[in-house]
Amino acid sequence: MTSPQAHSTYEHEFARSVEDPEGFWREAAQDIGWVRPPQRILDDTRAPFYRWFADGELNVSWNALDRHVEAGRGSQDAIIFDSAMTGQRRRISYSELLDEVSRFADVLRRHGAARGHRVIIYMPMIPEAVVAMLACARIGAVHSVIFGGFAAPELAARIDDARPNLVITASGGIEPSGPIAYLPILRRALSLASNGKQGTVQAVIVKERAEVPGNAIGLDSVAGEGWLDWNSEIAQSQPAAPVAVSASDPLYVLYTSGTTGRPKGVVRDSGGYAVALAWSMRNVYGIDAGDVWWTASDVGWVVGHSYIVYGPLIVGATTVLYEGKPVGTPDAAAFWRVIERYRVQALFTAPTAIRAIRRTDPELELLGGIDVSSLEAVFLAGEHLDTETYHWLAEALSVPVVDHWWQTETGWPIVGNPRGLGLLEVKPGSATVPIPGFQVEVVDGRASRCEAGTAGNIVVKLPLPPGALISLWSGEERFKEAYLDAFPGYYSTGDGGMIDEDGYVFILGRTDDVINVAGHRLSTGQLEDTVLTHPSIAEAAVIGVRDSLKGERPCAFVTLKAGLETSDDAALRDQVVDLVRNTIGPVASFKDLFVVPRLPKTRSGKVLRKTLREIANGDGLTVPATLDDSDVLQALQAAVTTNTKAVSR
Ligand code: COA
Ligand code: AMP
Question: Which InterPro entries does this entry report, sorted A to Z (predicted)?
Fold first, then answer.
């Protein structure tokens, strides 16, 4: 139950952030160590392109490491690495991490990376991925971490866009299906990228992982290509000092799916991000120096950047780095054991992970005998938290379960229940209230504000607070077009939802062609482009259908070219599944395909995706008035009914 005190603290802080944003963030900036403290808090001279703390200078790796060592926390664990996949466990203190990061920063520098240069990091969930990120930050290089579940063409597209000087990788990751050999994927990506190894990429540095079973595809496999061994490079290094950068220098570029096939490179600044993360760790999550915090996600996602790496380290907490799954590695008690082993105080993960545990161990028999009493709260984000999962978890653990909503673009939560300010009453189904700094509104298509309880487009009034994206790597014009033009004066989130009479925000889902599969964001447009490269397919429409584990999963409806019809839909599906795995990656979880005689379209030729969704989800079908040909619905339903078993792998 909320105390009136918590409510008034939240309201006070929120009002302060709106009425005097500069005062609010000037104060928050004092929690960061600056080489040159900012005098100017908000630069609005180029609105709608804003900059926070623009004349300040700092180094983010110094804030995450040196500062804590200097303050006497050198022997505290900075990272606890636990791999359910290899059995490896390793504690890395702040002093040790500082040493490794400084040395790897020297390696980067010696191989040609400097302030402003890009470094691609394509690695599994191992401590070296964090070291590589922080080492980039130390020399002012801009990292771009690419999630390991993407295939070579996706990696190539990001290499082309980021134009990196260096690529850092590892010899292998491990998935339940077996080891993942990274080097052949990277090699193919480099040959696909227009600049290739001969272009901007001056060196590739590889962390060999002897512990990965079947680690046959190591450096030997690329002998003669001059790829460098992480360990030998570190052995020859000297610790490098942190380089002061401008607060608005980019810290990283992180690619996310948009409505087109071209991924968007979200540009994050250094100063605003550091301030926002320090503020959010304490005030949203209630975590501070010395606490043990675990974000079960991947460094390839924004959640990993903000709350596996930078957030917890900036405040001097201990961050758990977990390589494994919530179930099957080896069982559905994996999370509980990690919590017990390290006395984890707060866990952050995606609802999918909890649904996976619930599905496997609904009565929580495996929790018996495991001591999770250290746990004080669980935070869930990345996708909609269904009320059943919410209630199940809250009852199972008897700790607050906090839904919160944000995006790669914002870098930290827009809406949540700010535990550090005092938890507010929960309304299951709502992500709770706007976080200080975010002025959230719901507007209709004509930008008029919707009344309380009425659904519309969720927008955030400009300027966005510190820490949110400052641009897209492909340029400010694309940034403006993608996010700022639809509702002038506002940032358009791409999500729909409503705000009730108490100010609680309910997120109802994307209003664009983005779908969310197990907390991973995918573009249906990009999936369609890939499906259409199959020689037999004439037209394709990809939609998200409900999935009890992953929230949504992609499903393709296709028509075939005349003369290329097949009676073997399952064989066609297998070919398209492989095509998607090899072009986008296994992360797309693409398994469903329906061959239909025609796609339902409006008279102007637009595919009726809502109708396809209704049919695929088995919902009551509303026949659209704009439908060109009503017979198509019968044919579609027949195709889905007869083919469901045959084509869903
Ligand atoms: N490298 C290579 N492949 C990867 C990968 C990586 N880093 N991460 C996932 N994949 C592969 C998986 O092995 C799987 O391949 P498969 O089709 O051969 O089995 C595919 O991509 C889909 O992965 P995933 O969505 O993780 O599904 P899953 O069935 O393996 O596991 C869950 C299901 C629920 C256990 C898993 O999705 C999960 O833990 N989700 C938590 C959500 C999360 O962390 N979201 C991040 C945002 S907060
Ligand atoms: P990503 O940028 O990959 O983090 O994905 C962001 C998108 O995930 C948002 O735009 C939402 O559509 C969805 N999302 C994230 N958190 C939530 C949440 N708590 N509830 C509902 N949807 C969410």
Answer: ACAS_N, AMP-bd_C, AMP-binding_CS, AMP-dep_synth/lig_dom
What is residue 648's DSSP assignment?
Answer: B
Using CA atoms, how far residue 531 sits from 149, 522, 526, 566, in Å, is: 18, 14, 9, 16
**Distance (Å, whole) CA 326 – CA 352:** 9
Q: What's the first-to-final CA gap in the chain, in angstroms?
A: 45
Q: Is the CB of 282 under 6 A from ligand 2?
A: no
Q: Structural domain boundaries of the chain?
A: 32-76+92-281, 518-647
Query: Which of 175, 177, 257, 306 most suits a substitution to test ligand 1, by most atoms within 8 Å of the C-beta?
Result: 175
pLDDT in tens, 260-295: 667 899 999 999 999 999 999 999 999 999 999 999
- Kindly state if the Cβ of 587 falls inside 6 Å of ligand 1: yes
pLDDT tens, 215-268?
557 888 887 788 999 999 999 999 999 999 999 999 999 999 876 667 899 999
Enclosing H/E stretch for 130: helix 127-139
Q: Do the two domains 32-76+92-281 and 518-647 of this chain adopt the same fold?
A: no
d(CA 435, CA 277): 13
Residue 640 Cα to ligand 2 middle (Å): 29
Share of the chain above pLDDT 90, in %: 84
Amino acid at the residue 357: I
Give the SS3 label for residue 183: helix
From the CB of 600, is ligand 1 less than 6 Å away? no
Alpha-carbon gap, residue 632 to 638, rounded angstroms: 10
Smallest-distance ligand from the CA of 348: 1
Closest ligand 2 atom number to CA of residue 510: 12
Three-state SS at 34: coil
Q: Compute, in angstroms, the gap from residue 323 CA to the centroid of ligand 2.
A: 23
Alpha-carbon torsion 616, 618, 622, 623, what sign?
Answer: positive
612 contacts: CB under 8 Å, gap ≥ 6: 541, 543, 557, 599, 600, 636
Q: What residue spans of 490-608 are helical by DSSP H?
A: 524-531, 569-583
2 pLDDT band, cuts 50/70/90, is: low
Going through 163-220 in order, the beta strands assigned E by DSSP cover 166-170, 172-175, 178-181, 203-207
Residue 17: pLDDT band with limits 50, 70, 90: very high
Task: Say if ligand 2 is within 6 A of residue 266 CB.
Answer: no
Which of the 8 DSSP states describes residue 107?
A: H
Q: What does residue 516 show for φ and ψ, rounded to 5 degrees? A: -125, 110
Please provide the average confidence, as pLDDT, over all residues in the chain.
Answer: 93
Which protein residue's CA is at the shortest distance from atom 5 of ligand 1?
149
What pLDDT was estimated at residue 89? 98
38-61: pLDDT as tens digits: 999 999 999 999 999 999 999 999
Is the Cβ atom of 517 under 6 angstroms away from ligand 2?
A: no
350 lines ligand 1 (CB under 6 A): yes
Fold type of domain 32-76+92-281: Rossmann fold (3.40.50)
Q: What is the pTM of this model?
A: 0.95
CATH 3.40.50.10230 applies to domain 518-647: no
d(Cα 139, Cα 163) in Å, to the nearest integer?
A: 18
How far is the C-alpha of 397 from the C-alpha of 370, rounded, in Å? 12
Give 199's strand partners. none
Work out the pLDDT band at 603, boundaries 50, 70, 90: confident
Q: Which residues fall within 8 angstroms of residue 211, CB to CB, at 6 or more apart?
A: 83, 86, 87, 88
pLDDT at position 646 is: 41
